[in-house]
Amino acid sequence: MDDVCCxxxxxxxxPEFEMETFDPQKGLFSTFKLRQNMKKGWWTVLFFYPADFTxx
Length: 56
Hints:
Structural class: alpha+beta
Helix content: 10-25%
Mean pLDDT: 79
Shape: flat
Low-confidence stretches: none
Number of helices: 1
Radius of gyration: 14 Å
Order of helices and strands: EEEEH
Distance between the termini: 34 Å
């Protein structure tokens, strides 16, 4: 398995970022901030489908 993706290597820190999110249970939009999750000690799993924004 290749250990390089998108300019990051396994073990590298992810750069700080913010992104808009949607909670379907509450029906609300909000902003996810990586820094806030890290301060709380929460793990974060990132995944995406770059060509598939299916808002149902």
